[in-house]
């Protein structure tokens, strides 16, 4: 069934450099099915109005659809309540918001633990908090292309107040044992923050099962539009957390001298939100649910199991990440001996194969891996074994061309 879904994605049906497009840049952003595109158009064609404030029919319809999208997100990640689901611009904004909470509670004797495989959006905001509060930022390093759990256990102590780790690395592709890490964090009284940008689109996420205190993800990496994302936070923490932005929508009363805040989740959503984006994210969730997250995960597993042995056979190809494929999601970072990854990506593009090259917003990781850049192929549910074959073929052609 999943082999037949490319037709739902108009953008995939095109010729690039005289070759049919093989889109393998899904860790950067994913393509959108027709159902998501038509929800966007329909919203602007029939319902467009500002939310929450109006009593006219369109405003009520827009509000109902916006809040229905929040409920879809709640169910998707199994949050207890829609009060725990905040719409943001994306993972970066969500993680920045968490660090505003950290600003509120950290002091100079406290510690923050993150890992060396984090995306810049889960590093830089913590550096800022550390600078502002005097808290110490500690990194957990790797073993066999995965988080070194012994190092993690050693780094998390009673001084640790926040542990913030990616569920899935956007370079190594490794799936981190968040539930286990959250248990360790909680034993020491620390909050567990999860960067779910690369997991939420690809596997079942249950924030209660993981026992995450905060969980961040982006709509555009899961077939939704850009400019919409989510921050999940446990209700009792969001109650303690100050709003990040101030203005309309988030207030209860405004006096000349001060103001009071409205209730969750709207306390955090100042100004006119990305209404169409949220509704379209809801449509993306409907589409993902119609395929089944277990089926999506299984499909990507099969692609990885199919392509990895073929890649391993290529002489001069270095692969990064876990050796055990079972620990890997659909992200494969690689380098071809003697070639700059930008040249590799350009050569692959000439074959119609879209991959990314660069530091993937993970400079500390690449420095740790002792490489300035890598190429990266990343799969999603609409990719096929033919796409895998095309990738391998294009890499072999590239090798031949440059040799
Ligand atoms: N974390 C990870 C692991 C990511 O892969 C990305 C996107 N590349 C982000 C955070 C940031 O997501 P966004 O740009 O959508 O805010």
Automatic annotation (TrEMBL):
<keyword id="KW-0663">Pyridoxal phosphate</keyword>
<dbReference type="InterPro" id="IPR015421">
    <property type="entry name" value="PyrdxlP-dep_Trfase_major"/>
</dbReference>
<dbReference type="GO" id="GO:0031071">
    <property type="term" value="F:cysteine desulfurase activity"/>
</dbReference>
<dbReference type="InterPro" id="IPR015424">
    <property type="entry name" value="PyrdxlP-dep_Trfase"/>
</dbReference>
<dbReference type="InterPro" id="IPR010970">
    <property type="entry name" value="Cys_dSase_SufS"/>
</dbReference>
<dbReference type="InterPro" id="IPR015422">
    <property type="entry name" value="PyrdxlP-dep_Trfase_small"/>
</dbReference>
<dbReference type="Pfam" id="PF00266">
    <property type="entry name" value="Aminotran_5"/>
</dbReference>
<keyword id="KW-0808">Transferase</keyword>
<protein>
    <recommendedName>
        <fullName>cysteine desulfurase</fullName>
        <ecNumber>2.8.1.7</ecNumber>
    </recommendedName>
</protein>
<dbReference type="GO" id="GO:0006534">
    <property type="term" value="P:cysteine metabolic process"/>
</dbReference>
<dbReference type="GO" id="GO:0030170">
    <property type="term" value="F:pyridoxal phosphate binding"/>
</dbReference>
<dbReference type="InterPro" id="IPR000192">
    <property type="entry name" value="Aminotrans_V_dom"/>
</dbReference>
<dbReference type="InterPro" id="IPR016454">
    <property type="entry name" value="Cysteine_dSase"/>
</dbReference>
<feature type="domain" description="Aminotransferase class V">
    <location>
        <begin position="22"/>
        <end position="391"/>
    </location>
</feature>
<comment type="similarity">
    <text>Belongs to the class-V pyridoxal-phosphate-dependent aminotransferase family. Csd subfamily.</text>
</comment>
């Amino acid at each position: 069934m999943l082999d037949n879904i490319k037709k739902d994605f108009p953008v995939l049906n095109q010729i690039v450099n005289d070759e049919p497009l093989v889109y393998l840049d899904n860790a950067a952003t994913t393509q959108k099915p027709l159902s998501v595109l038509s929800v966007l158009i329909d919203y602007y064609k029939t319902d467009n109005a500002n939310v929450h404030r109006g009593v006219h029919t369109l405003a009520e319809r827009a509000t109902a659809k916006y809040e229905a999208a929040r409920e879809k997100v709640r169910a998707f990640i199994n949050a207890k309540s829609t009060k725990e689901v905040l719409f943001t611009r994306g993972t970066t904004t969500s993680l920045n918001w968490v660090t505003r909470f950290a600003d509120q509670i950290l002091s100079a004797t406290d510690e923050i633990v993150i890992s060396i495989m984090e995306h810049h959006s889960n590093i830089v905001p913590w550096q800022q908090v550390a600078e502002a509060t005097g808290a110490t930022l500690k990194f957990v390093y790797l073993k066999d292309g995965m988080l070194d759990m012994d190092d993690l256990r050693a780094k998390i102590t009673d001084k640790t107040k926040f542990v913030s780790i990616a569920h899935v690395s956007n370079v190594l592709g490794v799936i981190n044992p968040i539930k286990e890490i959250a248990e360790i964090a909680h034993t020491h009284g620390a909050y567990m923050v999860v960067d779910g940008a690369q997991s939420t689109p690809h596997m079942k996420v249950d924030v209660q099962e993981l026992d995450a205190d905060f969980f961040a993800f982006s709509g555009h990496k899961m077939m939704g539009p850009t400019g919409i994302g989510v921050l999940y936070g446990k209700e009792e923490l969001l109650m303690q957390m100050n709003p990040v932005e101030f203005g309309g929508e988030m207030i209860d009363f405004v006096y000349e001298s001060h103001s009071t805040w409205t209730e969750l989740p709207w306390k955090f959503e100042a100004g006119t939100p990305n209404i169409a984006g949220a509704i379209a994210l809801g449509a993306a969730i409907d589409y993902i649910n119609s395929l089944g997250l277990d089926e999506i995960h299984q499909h990507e597993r099969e692609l990885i199991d199919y392509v990895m042995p073929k890649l391993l056979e290529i002489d001069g190809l270095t692969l990064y990440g876990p050796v055990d494929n079972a620990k890997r999601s659909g992200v494969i970072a690689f380098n071809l001996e003697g070639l700059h990854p930008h040249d590799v990506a350009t050569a692959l593009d000439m074959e119609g194969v879209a991959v990314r090259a660069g530091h993937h917003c993970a400079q500390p990781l690449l420095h740790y891996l002792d490489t300035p850049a890598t190429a990266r192929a990343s799969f999603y549910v609409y990719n096929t074994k033919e796409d895998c074959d095309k990738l391998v073929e294009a890499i072999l052609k590239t090798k031949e061309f440059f040799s």
